[in-house]
Amino acid sequence: MDNHTTVSTFLLWGFSSFPDLQDLLFVMVFFSHVTILAANVSIIVAVKLNHSLHIPMYFFLCGLSFSETCTAMVIIPRMLVDLLSDSKSISVFECATQMFFFFGLSGNNCFIMAAMSYDRYTAIHNPLHYSTLMTQKICFQLMMAAWLVGFLVSMCIVTIVFNLSFCDSNTIQHFFCDISPVVCLACDYTLSYEMAIFVLSAFVLVGSFILIMISYVFIGSIVMKMPSAKGRYKAFSTCSSHLTVVCTHYGFAGFVYLRPKSSDSFREDMLMAVTYTVLTPLLNPIVYSLRNKEMQIALRKIVNSANRFILQMVNKRTLNI
Length: 321
Fold this sequence. Notes:
The chain has 321 residues and is mainly alpha-helical. The chain has 10 helices and 3 strands.
């Protein structure tokens, strides 16, 4: 951190504006968090245990589920603690760490979705050579590139933000250390810093979105040339789950991070951020489980195995008694 930083702790004001709703919010966020963990872990376990799902599409889906789970773990446990606590303080180092992991993982999510769109393009454009074009090594390299770029950009953003001078209020009008509520507390936040952060954010959001759209433009052109209506439907259906997740993810993220900011927009941004951090991680497993028969079968096997295990444990305890 820069020596000019005079503030040693921040106050996450967040939901303090709604004191009567704190208990209700805690219950809702807690159960949402448990559901996020259970749903995404179920996706990972289902893919791991089912050999028919050991293909690139599900490899990237596992990576996305793991990254979404980590993103939720960075934000939600702290949010739950603050909803029950009178002291909502967070040190500058903790704030920087939370921001680094949140934006690193969020950037990773964007580039994994870009890799997933490329995988769908390859599967539709070259179905006969798909297994040679999307090898395990290439999939792993794409996944590592997504993690590397996401955290490099996040490091740049965090370095810019926490080299500013915080010498006025230390109250962050948010439930976590988001960029805009933190930089508005700085004394020396100039247009050049604002443009640098905007360019880095746009590189992740707009850059990965352009990669996704390029893949889908090519997919669309290939599908429209297919003579069979059944073939066109099958090709589009393989992409529908991914497109649903992409539209929701980029819709919320673009609204929060790419539109012009004002002091009056923080409450609106905070409400959108709740959706982005709590509901979006739920969307990935729900969409893929509802729209994909292979995933439904695999998840059903996991549930049945879990039920059998629980029944066996209950029977053992009953016999012991």
